[in-house]
Amino acid sequence: MTVTNPAALYGGAFHELLTIVKGFRNGAVYGAKVRFPHALVMTFLFRTGTLESKIRAILKATYMHGRNLALFVTIFKSLLLAFRLARGRERSLDAFIAGGVGGYMVFGIDNNINHQIVLYLLARVVLGSAKLVQEQVGFKTPRQAWPAFASLVWATVMWLFRHRSRHLQSSLRASMQYLYNDSDKFHDLRTLLWHNR
Fold first, then answer.
1. What is the C-alpha separation between 3 and 22, in angstroms, rounded?
2. How many CB atoms lie within 10 A of CB 38?
3. With contact defined as beta carbons under 8 Å apart, do 105 and 75 qualify?
4. Which end of the chain is more exposed for a tag (fewer CB within 10 A), N or C?
5. Cα–Cα dist 48/37, whole Å
6. Has residue 183 got a pLDDT over 80?
7. CA 197, CA 188: separation in Å to the nearest integer?
8. 3-state SS string over 108-122?
9. In the chain, what is the straight-line distance between the N-terminal and C-terminal CA atoms, in Å?
10. PANTHER family from the xrefs (predicted)?
11. How far apart are CA 85 and CA 10, in angstroms?
């Protein structure tokens, strides 16, 4: 097929399909950009093993994050396009449904990368919901709602850590152990100030 007017290809009948291709590309690139530096730092700070195993872990995490975002964007945009083609317009609920389907298919797979992404999103969803409630209730500024939100989050996590720590994510539990329980244990000046144990 010869395209005499390339602009017609990008802005015409193929535009909707090409937005899906571009979304896949952007998901892969963004995922890699976000995950690579995080994996690099976390791997070299906390992971044991050979240099080769560390590099392999960094590349695997980067690939998984980029792939998962690329797949999610593709599913989400494809479903929105299908809804628009079926009804002639997009409804507000369509984004919720497409997000739910994509979330189940891609991020419903139980692994550490998906846990981190979903927990990151959960925090942003809760914060966004708090702002929505604040707007509906009539608080004039976020400063009125933020202290209550921060207090509730910290109260909940500390109660869980002290009394039901097995229900917390392992990396959070390990951080809390280091901060709150390990600081109770020392037997000389060296373990008080220099070494944790």
1. 20
2. 14
3. yes
4. N
5. 18
6. no
7. 10
8. CCCCHHHHHHHHHHH
9. 70
10. PEROXISOMAL MEMBRANE PROTEIN 4 (PTHR15460)
11. 19
Helices (H) and strands (E) in the chain, counts: 8, 0
Tell me the one-letter amino acid at 181.
N
Q: How far lies 24's CA from each of 17, 20, 52, 72, 164, in Å?
A: 11, 6, 29, 8, 40
Report yes or no: 15 and 9 within 8 Å, Cβ to Cβ: no
Cα–Cα distance for residue pair 28/22, rounded to 1 Å: 10
Spell out the residues 6+ positions from residue 40 whose beta carbon is closer than 8 angstroms to its own: 58
- CA 157, 159, 163 angle in degrees (round to 5)? 120
Tokens 């392992």 locate to 170
Tokens of residue 159, six digits? 């109660």
**Alpha helix positions (H), 47-141:** 51-87, 92-102, 112-137
pLDDT digits (tens, 9 = 90+) for 103-122: 999 999 999 899 999 999 99
Sequence-separated (6 or more) residues with CB below 8 Å from residue 126:
149
CB 20 within 8 A of CB 77: yes
pLDDT over 80 at 21, yes or no: yes
- Rounded CA separation 170/103 (Å): 22
